[in-house]
Amino acid sequence: QICLSLVKLLFYLAHSPLGSIVLLDFQPRQFVMVDGNLKVTDMDDASTEELSCKEDNDCTLDFPTKSFPLKCSVDGKCKGINEKKNLFNAYRYFFTYLLPHSAPPALQPLLSDILNATGDLRYGINETLRAFEKVLHLYKSGLYLQKRPLLLKDYISLKGFRTVEGEDYKCWPSYSHLGCLLSIHSAEEAAAICNSQSQCQSFIVTQQRTWTGRPLASFQSSWTDLIPDTNAVVYIKRSASSGERL
């Protein structure tokens, strides 16, 4: 969410009515999230000026660990330097820390492609935004889910119940520090996640939604303490419930 919002912001800056705007003091502390959107808190160090040049050698974009040769345009400006400077800063301050860690395994190669392409400046802001929107579409639609055996049949579902809240086993990347709370596309995906975790005996699909509209599911190591909840459905492994009365 943070990276996509940043890319949309940089897309606007690259195509603003004033021309391509560069953020000269590009630091994480210069941004804040407002209603799920990333915004710049300080525009004092923004500029629409692009570096003047006489030849291509005048247009090297230097960073502490990398340098990029750019072209000198016919009107004596380093072509696209503002856009590329913003994009590489987004890569080194945001993408490298956030992109590799929070996506389903099937989407991680696509995010790695974005990471590598922006880190080498092979993508401009237009290509980067299209790549992010493709990943978002796959994520929201569930098209990233690979064909696999149907596992939900191995679970008993109880509508209108949930287990008592409390600290349970933890997983990554959980929305709760007390247990394992993950976003899912469907109960079928939740069943696959539960099967992949040795501690998991049950999961609850709630009415809570993430910013993409995906429901949250709580994965738990037990199921015995059930309480009524009209907005929840609890799924219990048949193997865990065998010999017990529901």
Task: Describe this protein's structure.
The chain is an alpha+beta fold. The chain has helices spanning 2-14, 81-98, 108-119, 125-141, 187-196, 238-241; strands at residues 22-23, 31-34, 37-40, 46-47, 60-62, 67-69, 155-163, 180-183, 202-209, 215-220, 226-237. The strands form four sheets. Strands 7-11-9-10-8 form a five-stranded antiparallel beta sheet. Strands 1-4 form a two-stranded antiparallel sheet. α3 (108-119) packs antiparallel against α4 (125-141). The longest helix has 18 residues, at 81-98. It is elongated. The mean pLDDT is 89.
Key phrases:
single chain, 246 residues, alpha+beta, Transferase(Phosphotransferase), domain 1, Hepatocyte Growth Factor, 2 domains, five-stranded antiparallel β-sheet, two-stranded antiparallel sheet, 11 strands, elongated, PKDCC kinase, kinase, signal
Map the helices and strands.
Elements lengths: L1 H13 L7 E2 L7 E4 L2 E4 L5 E2 L12 E3 L4 E3 L11 H18 L9 H12 L5 H17 L13 E9 L16 E4 L3 H10 L5 E8 L5 E6 L5 E12 H4 L5
Antiparallel strand pairs: 1-4, 2-3, 5-6, 7-11, 8-10, 9-10, 9-11
